[in-house]
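SEQUENCE-TO-STRUCTURE ENTRY
===========================

Subject: a protein chain together with a token-level encoding of how that chain folds.

Sequence line: the amino acid chain in single-letter code, read from start to end.

Question of interest: how does this chain fold, as expressed in backbone structure tokens?
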Amino acid sequence: MKKHFLAAGAMALSWMVAQAGAQTVPGHEAPALARQVCVSCHGPGGRTDSGQFPSLAGQSEAYLLAQLKAYRDHSRANLNAQRFMWGVASWLSEADLQSLATYYAAQPPAPARAAARTPEQQAAYARGQALFQAGEPARGVLACVACHGAQAQGLGAIPRLAGQNARYLTQQLAVFKGHDRADGAAMAAEAGPLTPEQVHDLALYLQAL
């Protein structure tokens, strides 16, 4: 984690130096900005295998822009947001935020993670699929598909979940359960009743999409 924190800081610092030496600052071309600021954590083209950071490729532009602004104004305040994104986002202009959101939304998502499954993993996958598609009405858990789409592709301000690393998804569900995201009231209500097994199963299913 410390290595990622230092790498992100170094990337952001190099971008600041480059900006300071420029004759004009009309806004940076998004691919170059992404390479300078984002690639060390989110991977080339926004596709990463890290369980610590999300893949950004193919994510909703509206969602990406909203989250970047939330990092900049500190309304997204969970621990990793503070460690890795507050500083970076504070140095980005409005035009930079929009360029990055547009760029990453246009990138092809990472291929589905179709790793071979043990019988136990297959059973967990099936439970996660059932939970995603039907929810658990008796416990007040709505079907995820209702907001995130049939293939967890997201829509508008609702994020894409398909293909995200299971560890990252588990981490974010814990953030929602802990009411640690200002935009997460709806998700806190949904994540709250989930058992640890259900969180595991759901994350495993979504990772494989």
User: Anything to note?
Assistant: Confidence is low (pLDDT under 50) at residues 9-27. Residues 47 and 169 are 15 Å apart (CA to CA). The radius of gyration is 18 Å.
